[in-house]
Amino acid sequence: MRLFDAGARPGRGQTETDAVLTLPNVITILRFLGVPLFMWLVLGPREYGWSVVVLAVMGSTDWVDGYVARRLGQTSALGRVLDPAADRLALLAVALTLVLADVVQWWYLAALLVPDVALGIASLFYFHSHPDLPVSRVGKVRTALLLVGTPLLVLSKLALPGASLYSAAAWAFLVLGLLGHWVAAVNYFRAIVAKGRPVRKGRLGDGSREAGC
User: Fold this and answer.
1) What percent of the chain has pLDDT over 90?
2) Helix (H, G, I), strand (E, B), or coil: what is residue 110?
3) CA atoms of 19 and 173, how far apart (whole Å)
4) Which of 104, 140, 184, 190 has a 20 to 30 Å separation from 91 between CA atoms?
5) For all residues of the chain together, what is the average pLDDT?
6) Contact partners, residue 112, CB within 8 Å, separation at least 6
7) What is the Cα–Cα distance from 21 to 77, expressed in whole angstroms?
8) Phi, psi for 76 (deg, rounded to 5)
9) Contacts 24+ apart (CB under 8 A), 54-58
10) Which H or E run contains 89?
């Protein structure tokens, strides 16, 4: 079964709607809501078992919302921005939570945050907003690896048989995910520059003409 573009119907091109309240967007919002719940479970009662359940649900929605959008023809402009934003928020908030809980070190959060900050600065420089780029295949694989590795890492903190195996498997996924994160960031940066240069030149040209009036 294919994981990418699952739900697409053969012979039917993807259409985009301007609707805001669609089922895929509701599913994505549920992923947003899972973030504070996960943070509370880990930093409050230290319920690592339930936090793994929350992570699993959040990870599944990352695939389900895309599937539903393609299957029902509810791909939307908002969803193209909302879905990757939910991924970024989830990955960074979960990383910060695990740092505060002494599960991972600060370097792990920095490895996630630095590329996103660089892309954010580039987006503001060229577009003054979101660059509206499609999610790359590398980006999808990166997200999947991190979403699998994180709950495995949390599981390794429970008093379960084979905890060391969970930890080893978790870091295998997480290291590959971090490598993919940087590769995807480089590709996105190039795409932002390529798309943004004419936009910025046009903006500067319009400003020069207005100043000369």
Assistant:
1) 51
2) helix
3) 36
4) 190
5) 87
6) 91, 92, 95, 178, 181
7) 12
8) -130, 160
9) 55/94, 55/147, 55/150, 55/151, 55/154, 56/151, 58/31, 58/34, 58/90, 58/147
10) helix 77-100
